[in-house]
């Protein structure tokens, strides 16, 4: 049995783990930390000619200062659907339009809201950890199948150990990402 197959299994698992970390980072960008951040609107879908379309594809989104977000729809007719989508997204903003643009004032976060956002960030982190555990389980099951097909037992044990080291290192990375986000959220 070719031992390189275990390397392929571990490389495939690491690729899945990297995607889980990227997904975590993308989701954490959407958790606001009291500052105006245009990335908050990346996940909001707007009805555009009957199709749900990401908000950044129907409007320019800028942040002229730390407390304001300005949305410039590509078409004037999109102002009301954009306002409706922002309200439905329930992200705590009230859009104000002047017929040309939509202005959003970002209120300072209350202590209670900050704690809720930290919980939300930790929940995202736990989802990433679950993904890591599932990836580890799948990789170990694949190695066990290879072992039944003739892979030496010590090679199988070595690859399981290597997989666990990989998971541990990425769990530390998740902890660091969450710690950074928590500091960002709690900073007044």
Give a structural overview.
It is a single chain. The chain has 188 residues and is of the alpha+beta class. The chain has two domains: 4-29 and 110-186, Ribosome-recycling factor (Topoisomerase I, Chain A, domain 4); 38-105, Gyrase A, domain 2, CATH 3.30.1360. The chain contains four helices and six strands; from the N terminus they run H-E-E-E-E-H-E-E-H-H. It has helices at 4-29, 79-89, 111-148, 153-186, and strands at 45-48, 51-54, 59-65, 68-73, 96-97, 102-105. It has a four-stranded antiparallel sheet with strand order 3-4-6-5, covered by helices on one side. A two-stranded antiparallel ribbon has the order 1-2. Helix 1 runs antiparallel to helix 3 and helix 3 (111-148) packs antiparallel against helix 4 (153-186). It is elongated and about 70 Å long.
Tell me the overall shape. Answer: elongated
Number of domains: 2
CATH topology-level name of the largest domain: Topoisomerase I, Chain A, domain 4
CATH class of the largest domain: Mainly Alpha
Estimate what percentage of residues fall within beta strands: 5-15%
* C-alpha termini separation: 58 Å
Give the name of the CATH architecture of the largest domain: Orthogonal Bundle
Question: Which stretches are low in confidence, meaning pLDDT under 50 for 5 or more residues running?
Answer: none
The name of the CATH superfamily of the largest domain reads: Ribosome-recycling factor
Radius of gyration over alpha carbons?
Answer: 22 Å
